[in-house]
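Hi R.,

Here are the chain sequences for the assembly we discussed:
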Amino acid sequence: DIQMTQSPSSVSASVGDRVTITCRASQGISSWLAWYQQKPGKAPKLLIYAASSLQSGVPSRFSGSGSGTDFTLTISSLQPEDFATYYCQQANSFPPLFTFGPGTKVDIK
Amino acid sequence: QVQLQESGPGLVKPSETLSLTCTVSGGSISSYYWSWIRQPAGKGLEWIGRIYTSGSTNYNPSLKSRVTMSVDTSKNQFSLKLSSVTAADTAVYYCARGELQSFDYWGQGTLVTVSS
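And here is the predicted structure of the full complex:
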């Protein structure tokens, strides 16, 4: 099975900061990587799909990059509403299996 | 705007079967994959499995022996059954729509507690 790791596990940042979160897959997954934002008591929200495509309605300060095993989510200028936990998710095509990273909590510095 | 809503018992006894239904509104259930994903309190997300509107299924190998999914296109609903539950199955259960190998629409989630 493909394992996903994320770093850091948590980050403290201020409004306006640039924040970068890394996700690594245990084996190559091409560009089948998505990023989600989850706030307490809420369902995850899709931010990025196919490694770098911005989901409709998501602010452009969010961006994704990478392919193969190493991926990055960048928030260019952190806003108050961005304090949340972020998860990466990979899609293995055969057999179909979706796994999530352990999450990165972004909180207020 | 597509909306998903989970429904089902919030309390299930150990060894019994957990049953949940997801109702899709604001769009057709046809021609998409529909997944169940769960999250124990304070922990990460686990994909349980998915069903296509044809009825074709894929399950997480770690749960495969206990999972059954079904779809009712006439009602725009799909369902999850998880048998022989234990306390380890206590979690918030989400239904979600699959698109381009990610999940673009999610239900609000429903807490299922396994306890006698």
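The first strand of chain A starts at residue 4 and ends at 7. Chain A has a mean pLDDT of 95.

Let me know if anything looks off.

Best,
T.
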